[in-house]
Amino acid sequence: MQRPVIAIISTGGTIARRSMDPRDTVDYAEIGASIGGSDLLAALPEAVRARFAVCYIPFSSCDSVEMTLARWFDLASVVNRTIAARPDLDGVVITHGTSSLEEAACFLDLVLDAPCPVVVVGAQRPASAISADGPANLYAALLVASCPDAAGRGVLVVANNEIHAAQEVTKASTYQLETFRSPDFGPLGMIEANRVFFGRAAGYRRHVGWPEGYGSGGEIPRVDISYSHAGADGVGIRAFMAAGARGIITAGMLPGMCTPAENVALDEAVARGVVVVQASSGYCGGVVRRQELCQRGILAAGHMRPRQARILLSLALMTGADGDAIQALYDMP
């Protein structure tokens, strides 16, 4: 039986960290040591490794809090080059820190158009911890990346034996293993008894593509997030404008509303040509473009959470999309 060919592209994060104390699941990020992707693979039993023909590609040892859109563009370039150079490739697995994993997966899903499955995976516990989840998550990711049914579903996130769509998933818990959840629509599938099962299709996929001009002088526009709270006075919004923001995502109070003072500042931003998108700080549920937002020229983020809405807006601005085109992307579904 021919073994599936999988490329593992490694970045940093918990899955690639080790502590001297097997009880440490907290301080390893600051005082632990980094390990490479080949070490992650070596942690799997030989019988598991023998199921796959793996080519290992180191990308970086950056923790996920150090990631930026520019670094994710570089990561996407590595994915594209790897797929182009290996026509025999069955899938790609990207190891990534969980703090910004939902942003990384969303970014990759918005720009990549890969013919094979691309799976992003991380861990909640370092490799040295008792019951470390990294090896099990990596094995599950390899199974999904080698599954023909995973192709054509966009970038996938695999964790805790669940498969999530990149644009629907969020990190919900600081330390628990079942941290990645898709609160509005649920996971796409699961890994059970060494088999991959898909229970539903995403039904849609926002896709921006690779912005023309990036890499040849094109800049990544500044887009910031303003978090609403009782008594917020709009000072942060005006500070973002002063810093040169071309877009502002407002993480409003549910169901997507801001204080009167914030609204004044947001209207000032719209008048200056800043694209403003109303999102919600809630765990689930969407923001619709109700009449008041339409009258004020403010877009609605739909079911995208603020951090993912920021990535979409940054990429859309790079393509030169107008407000209607950007709103159409947010409106899926």
From TrEMBL:
Its EC number is 3.5.1.1. GO terms for molecular function: asparaginase activity. One of its GO terms (biological process) is asparagine metabolic process. The active site is at 14 (o-isoaspartyl threonine intermediate), 14. Residues 222-329 form the Asparaginase/glutaminase C-terminal domain. It comes from the Bacteria. CDD domains: L-asparaginase_II (cd08964). Residues 6-199 form the L-asparaginase N-terminal domain. Pfam families: Asparaginase (PF00710), Asparaginase_C (PF17763). SMART domains: Asparaginase (SM00870). Keywords: Hydrolase. Belongs to the asparaginase 1 family. This is L-asparaginase. It comes from Komagataeibacter europaeus (Gluconacetobacter europaeus). The gene is ansA.
